[in-house]
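agent> fetching stored inputs for the protoporphyrin IX containing FE docking request
agent> found them:
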Amino acid sequence: MTLPTTNNVGIPVASDNDSLTVGANGPILLQDHYLIEKNAQFNRERVPERVVHAKGGGAHGFLEVTEDVSQFTKAALFQPGVRTESLARFSSVAGENGSPDTWRDPRGFAVKFYTSEGNYDLVGNNTPVFFIRDPIKFPDFIHSQKRRADNHLRDHDIQWDFWTLRPESAHQVTWLMGDRGIPSNWREMDGFGSHTYLWENAGGEKFWVKYHFKTDQGIGYLPQADADRIAGEDSDYYIRDLFKNIKQGNHPSWTLYVQVMPYAEAADYRFNPFDLTKVWPKGDYPLIKVGRWVLDRNPANYFAEIEQAAFEPSNLVPGIGPSPDKMLQGRLFAYPDAHRYRIGANYTQLPVNAPKSPVNSYSRDGAMRYNNPGDPVYAPNSYGGPHASAEIASETASGYGVEDEVIRSAYKLHAEDDDFGQPGTLVRDVMDDAQRERLANNIIGHASNDVSRPVLERVFEYWRNVDKDLGDKVADAFRE
Ligand code: HEM
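agent> prediction call returned; pasting tokens
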């Protein structure tokens, strides 16, 4: 039986096709409230796109902890054998909603875990490092990647201008210009929490950790020419790939690992362990396996489950805390603030964002609130309302002992901190000849798009600082 069409409050409507008019050719009546509801609703269909990472797709799945890492964290989701429902959203960064999936860009790797202790979000990328190390530069950095003010075009001159003026970008730009800058699809890329986080075990012992999701599908990349062709043929190439594979039962999975640094080792480690432009070499801190993360269910409704998904690095559960990474500190503020603007004050009540554990919060009211706490409406109270406990809160894991002057300053350097050492190692020791060749060609191709001579000179210098041969090769390609 066909269901009758109704309006938004369930009243059956008379026609899907014809407005209410005075005679067949006559004007439309204001009385046609269904016509008005339908068009008014349509005018309000869009929420603002994400200011970054606007284009993306995602799926549902689960994390299964196969190993025992309880000596490092008491977080319930990481205890042996625990299985936790999860949501993923993959994205590109600088393009708008609708831009081609295969443009060169880092890829967002946002994961939500619906744990028994509230939602835990790991909002990372497919690269372990980032372009900058202080959140005060984030809007500037993004402005250099997005469209210009005058002609509304993206502009490689301003991109290289910013990157070469901020040498700490070199490590991430090396990843970006290499194969990882255009994955073959979202299934064949790794994910990284990127920041350093604090873990605390049941005995109160603390550790610094970094997260790695290693793809079980194997790493894949697209050569620039293929990516350019696909951008024209199918701008939704990655969304299609993920949806199709999950639908066919080919569920992508990743093995989750952590690197664990004993708490006291951070102070004298050869790199600043909180600097987001650095990795911890695996020779120093090997990967420790945690479990298996699988995506096995497509969204039934993209807007409700993916567009309205709200990931936030500040969603940390007991046993997990932030570190003094300045970028992470900035992000703890940025995301919930963005969600209140983009989706609305009560975004956590939407099914995709609501935890699957009880909410006993004192927050109330506001636009579109439908699940409101009753009395008592304040704390403390003597009427049996919830009360907070430092013993169980994730803030117990944020006591990393800070006592210093209030100043504006770059990080203090550790023994081997510089901007070019790690990207140089990546180029010389990690990449093979073919990868180095593609890296050089990608840089040359990218910088060949209307980059001014003074900026180009800095581009050569920047790459010579990373690796002399690479810089010379780039410079040779532009010899006049
Ligand atoms: C999205 C801010 C650095 C990964 C966003 C959004 C904002 C933002 C405002 C949009 C949120 C929304 O409307 O839903 C910042 C700031 C940063 C920063 C201020 C630095 C200070 C990073 C870093 C990473 C990252 C270092 C990865 C390691 C992501 C991802 C998304 C995102 C994956 C998309 C989440 C989703 O799929 O909904 N960021 N970001 N961001 N950011 Fe950042």
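agent> quick read of the result: The chain has a mean pLDDT of 96.
agent> awaiting further instructions
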